[in-house]
Fold this sequence. Notes:
Layout: H1 13-25, E1 42-45, E2 48-51, H2 69-79, H3 82-88, E3 90-94, E4 96-97, E5 113-116, E6 121-125, E7 132-140, H4 143-149, E8 154-157, H5 163-178, E9 187-190, H6 217-222, H7 226-243, E10 247-248, H8 272-287, E11 297-303, E12 322-324, H9 330-343, E13 347-350, E14 354-356, H10 369-379, E15 385-390, H11 405-415, E16 419-421, H12 427-435, H13 440-457, H14 467-473, H15 477-490, E17 492-496, E18 498-499, E19 502-503, E20 512-517, E21 520-522, E22 532-533, E23 542-547, H16 573-580, E24 585-590, E25 608-614, H17 619-626, E26 640-641, H18 644-649, H19 661-664, E27 665-667
Helix pairs in contact: 2-13, 5-14, 7-8, 7-14, 8-9, 10-11, 11-12, 15-17
Amino acid sequence: MFIPFHKPLYVSSISLVVLLFICCQQPLPIVQPELGTKEVEIIQHDNFKFKDLNRNSQLDPYEDWRLSAEDRAEDLLSQMNLEQKIGFMLISTIRMENESGFGQSSAEKLPNGDGLSEVDVTSSINFFTRVPLDDPFMSSAGTTKAVSEFHGRHFILRANPGVATMASWQNNLQELCEQQPLGIPAIVASNPRNHVVSDASVGLSLGKTAFSQWPGELGLSASRDAKLIEQFADIARQEWRAVGLRKGYMYMADLSTEPRWQRIEGTFGEDPYWVAEAMTALVKGFQGDQLGTESVALTTKHFPGGGATENGQDPHFSWGRKEIFEGGAFEKHLIPFKAAIKAGTSAIMPYYSFPVHTPYDTLGYAFNKPVLTDLLRNELGFQGIINSDTGPIRMMPWGVENLTVQERYTLALKAGINLFSGSADPAQLLATLKENLDLMPFVDDSVKRLLLEKFQLGLFENPYVDIEIAEQTVGKEAFLMAAKEAHRKSIVLLRNENHQSKNLLPLSKETKVYLEVNEKPITDSSTLNQLNLVNSPEEADVLLFWVIPKSKSLFESNGQPISLLLSDNNVDTKHIQEWSNKKPTLLAINFTKPWVIDEIFNTNSTNIKGVLATFGTTLEALLDIISGQANPQGKMPFSTPRSVQAVLEQKADLPGFEEPQEQYALFNYDEGLNY
Length: 675
C-alpha cells in the first residue's frame, strides 16, 4: 500500500522554464501565514498580520515573515544579549509532569502529564556509564528555570506519553517561551519513536510508542526500497509534526563494519553507497526538498562514522574511544554523510570517539577542528548545525581529559560545535565567553545557524499544535497498513532447502507447525490463523524457532570482550540442536547484530531446512512470509561472520563484503531468496 507523499509535484524541464519565465514577469502573491499565539499581540502592517514578539508595538525585521530567514536571524541576533546567546547554544533533556529525568526513575511510576516539570536534576555520576564524576553538573533544569533563567530553547524529550498529553505539553512549553522578552519559541527533539527495537535504552530509541511502528532501521534497509524508506519518513514526519516534535536525533549514517559494535541495530548496514541512498530518502521524507513549516529537521549522526570501534566497544566508554581505520576505509565511511549533506540535512552530530590510522588528530571529534571545520565545513561544504553528542564536555572528553571544563568548551567552539548537548546550566560556557571575548564570532555564528533553522521551520509564526488533529494523525489506519507492508518487505529468506522433493517454504495449510519464540511456545492460533499450530514438537511436521538474541544493553557494558555467539546472548542453543536433529526445522533469527550462529546452523546442517533473518519486526509479518501470504523480498544489510575466528580477524573499518568471503561470511551482504 502506498501513502502519497505530501510534497510539491515535479514538473518537466519545459514546464519549469515556462514557470520561471512567468515568475520573473509577475511576482508571486504574498500569502498570510497562520499565526499562533497565546501571549503576544497581533499587529497590522501593510494589511498583513504579524506577532509582536518583543512587545514594542512595532514591526521588527525578525517578526516580519515576509523577509528571508537570513535577514530575520541577523536582526534577532543583534537584539540578543550574551546570556541569551549562550543559553541558546545548549540542548538538554526536558521532563514532563511526573517524569524524573534522564538517568533517574520515578518511585511512583505515575503516567506523564501535560504539566511542566519544575524539578532540577543534578548528576554526580555519568548517567550513561554510572561512573562517578569529579564535578557534578545539572543535566536537566526545571522547565521555567530552563526557559526564563537559562534562556534555553533547545530540548530533548525522552518521555513516552500518549498523543494528547504530548501535544498539550508542547503547547504549554511554547506558551512559556512566548512569555519571555523576545518571544523565541522552543524546538523539541527526540530519538527515534517509530521502530520495533530490542534495545530501547534511554538515549537510543523509545521502543513501543503511540506512533506507527515500522521495522527497525536494519529492516528498512533490508527492504532495499528507497521509495519505501522515503514513504516511512514522510509518514513519521506527519506524526511527529502533529504533536510538535520538530527535530529528530536521527538517523545513523554509520556503517556496520565492526560486527561486535553495540549500536548496529540503529544503522542501515555495511554498504556505503546503499546507506547513502537511505540517508537521502530519510532526509527528503522528513525535511522535504528544503526546511519548511511542515518539516521535521534531522540530525544525521555520528560523524565521521562510528562503526569502526575498537573491538566493537562503544565510545560512551573510555575502552571504546578509538575508531580503528586499519583497512584504510575512512573515506568510505564519509559517503553516507556526503549524501545527507547533499540532501540538506539540518544538523550533523559528531561522535565521542577519535580516529586512529588517519591523517586527523587523535582528539574526540567534538574537539577535532581538522575533522569538523577542515573536513566537514570546508571540504564537504556542510552549512547546517553541528550538534555535539550528549556529554563530551563533562562525561566523554576523550583526548582532552586533562583540560578544564572551560578549556574544553574553548576547544570545542574553535573546532566548530554550534550546539552543546548534555548540560542544562550555561554557567561554565558563559564564564568561558566572559573570559575569552575573542570567541564571540564563534558564538554569533552558532546562534545564527540555530535561529535560521527555527525561522525556516516556521516556529516563530506558529509553534502550537492542534490536539484533535494530533490524535487523528498519529497511528491512523492508513499509516499502520503501510507499516504492515514494510514489515513483510523487511524479512530475508536465506535458505529454503528441499524437503520431500520440494522446497519447504512456503508451508501449506495442512502442515502441522510447532512454534517457539525465544523458547516460549505459541499455540494460540486465533490471531495467527496463517498456520496450523500444534501444542508440542512431538505432534509437529515442522518446527519453527524464532530466535531473538538479547545482548547486554549498551549502557551495561563493562569493557569485557563482546561475543556474538548465540549461547552468550541468551539463546538456548542446545535446546534448538536437540529438536532440529529430530524433525525438519525452520530457523528465524533477529539480527540486531551480525550474530555467529554456527552453534545451531552451518554449511553442514541437514535438518534445518529454512533460515530467515528479521531485523525488528512482528510475528504476524514473519508468519505471513512463512505461510506464503507474502513473498519474501528482503536482502541482507550486512554480511554475517561464519565463526568467532572470522570476527577476530576482520578489519573494523571494512564492510563485510570486502573481507575474504570464503573465510568470513556465512550469509553475504545482499543475499536473499524469494518464492
